[in-house]
Each structure stands twice: as C-alpha cells, then as structure tokens.
Amino acid sequence: MKRAAIIYNEHAGQANDHLSIEQIKAQIESHDFQLKLCPTSKPGDGERIAKETGKDVDTLFIFGGDGTVHECINGIPSLQNRPNLAVLPGGTCNDFARTLGISMNLEEAIDQVCTGTTKTVDVPKMNDRYFLNFFAVGLIADTSENINEELKATIGRLSYFWSALQTVTNPTYYTYTLTSDDLHLTGEALSSSLTEITLVPSDYLHNTSMTVITSTSLKKVDFPYQPGRKPNLMTNLDENENNLIHHQLKHLTLHVEPEGNVDIDGEDGGKTPVTITLGDKVTFCIPSESQ
After folding, report:
1. How far is Cα 244 from Cα 211, in angstroms, rounded to an integer?
2. How many of the other CB atoms lie within 10 Å of CB of 216?
3. In this predicted model, what pLDDT tens digit does every residue of 244-275 receive, in sequence order?
4. What angle do CA 117, 120, 122 make, to 5 degrees?
5. What confidence tens digit (pLDDT) does each residue in 142-176 have?
6. Domain extent listing, the chain
C-alpha cells in the first residue's frame, strides 16, 4: 500500500462537487493508498506541513486552489526525498490544475492523478520563493492586491472582476529594466508579466526555460484578461499587431520604477526588484494520454 497525505484548506473557496474530506479520502484509498489527513488553518501551514510530511510519503495530495498549491510547493524543494505531488482542484481559482490537464470534476480528478502518469518539471524561483503558475508586476498584480478577502469568500471569482474594475480606473505605468545574460531591455508598461506556464500551456511540461513577454507599446494591447484567472497571452493574440516580444530565458533580473507590487500564483510576492531563476525539479501526477 502506497503512503500518502493530503493537505487541504478547510476554507478553500467554492470547493467543487461538494465532496466531504472523508469522501475524498475514501476515493483516494480505493486506489491502494494509505492516506493521512493534514488540514491547514492559517497562512503558512501548507508550506510547513508539506515540509514536515512530504519526506515520509510517496504521494502528497494538495486539495485547494492556486494559493494552497503555491504554499505547499515552497515546502518541497528543501526535502532530500521528495514525494510526487497530486493537485486536486478545490479553490476559487484552479489554474495550475487546468494546466496539468486535470479535470475540474473532483471525482474525475482523483481518478486521474491516482491512475495516471508523472512528469518532472522545473519550478521557477523568485528571490527566495518558488512559484508554479504566474508572475506579474503592474496591473495584474495591483488587481490581486486590491481583492477584498471577505468579498472573495462570499462571491468567489466575481471578486476579481470587482477588483479589476477598481484598478483599471486609475492604472499605473511602469518603467522596467530587464536583464539576463546578453539581454538588456528597458521600456514602459502598464503590466509586466512573466510565466512559465500560463503563456505556453501546451509546452510547459516540456520546457526548461521561462517565457517572458514584453511590449513596445502595451497601451495598445487588448489583453484577453479574465479576472480571477491569469491571462493566457498566447491565446488569440497576434504578436505583430500588439507589439509583443517573446523571450525564452533561464534567469532574469527585473527592476521597475515606481516600485511595483509583485503577484506570484495569485499571492502577495512583495515588491520589486526581483531575480528569477529556474529552481528545483518537482514531480507531478498528471492524467495519462488515454484519460
């Protein structure tokens, strides 16, 4: 029998399918797992529990939204023996689970990660924090900064629309300097964003570099931005028409004036400047091709 634990946020917004944790536990254990329940009760618990429990299990299930996944991933790189990570959608936003091809139906998702395959990926690191799904400075980060947590708990994804409406009425333009090896870029942007996943979802599991998008005139860009989900700038977006330039990098340093808020995986990442590198490798459970 395989050893496993599940970290879950009891207060994760709008956990889909309304399955109780005991029902989730029973379904996972039907796949020959012996499962330990590890609830979180306050910020930081996910990282701490992942670090304490991860070394003793073969698979660590993470049930929650992108914020819970972000916390947990930061507890893994310090472990010498790392478990496979199985992400189960259960929060307001589940973008990383979507990127891995995991169903938004919780029962289907459990079967997929328990019977599928695995993939090892490089996890990017910003200063001393790891992230999986998204990094942003500017409009998108300011939108996340302005989210009312009580409103988010009440109306879920709609809270992002409200925050975006409040933010875009008074946007800030940033002057940025981005350096990496022989690359040195400066410019003005409404929102500087970097990601290894959201911008290139079809290639993410096969990439060993990060995709950075800059623009010569972001004032003219019509972002296909749905608040509550990080923007997929590769979708229906013409590079030439929107003055976008794509860069594949393994590390970078970003300075922004005025000092900008940083959003990593939808969480507060502090302030600029930042240095980003490709960090440690982590193995995820993903659906098989037949699933």
Report:
1. 12
2. 12
3. 566 777 788 988 888 878 888 878 888 889 99
4. 155
5. 555 544 455 444 444 444 444 444 444 566 677 88
6. 2-115, 135-280
Domain 2-115 has CATH 3.40.50.10330: yes
Token duo for residue 225: 């931005």
Task: Name the class of domain 135-280.
Answer: mainly beta
Which residues are part of the catalytic machinery?
267
Residues 6+ apart with CB under 8 A from 53: 5, 7, 36, 38, 60
Radius of gyration for the alpha carbons in the chain, expressed in angstroms and rounded: 19
What is the value of pTM for the model shown?
0.78
Q: What secondary structure does DSSP assign to the chain, as a single string?
A: -EEEEEEEETT-TT-GGG--HHHHHHHHHTTSEEEEEEEE-STTHHHHHHHHHHTT-SEEEEEE-HHHHHHHHTTSTT-SSPPEEEEEE-SS--HHHHHTT--SSHHHHHHHHHHSEEEEEEEEEETTEE-SS-EEEEHHHHHHHT--HHHHHHHTTHHHHHHHHHHHTS---EEEEEEETTEEEEEEESEEEEESSTT-TTTGGG-SSEEEEEES-GGG------TTS---TTTT--TTTTTEEEEEESEEEEEEES--EEEETTEEEEES-EEEEEEEEEEEEE--TT-
The span from the CA of 23 to the CA of 251, in Å, is 43
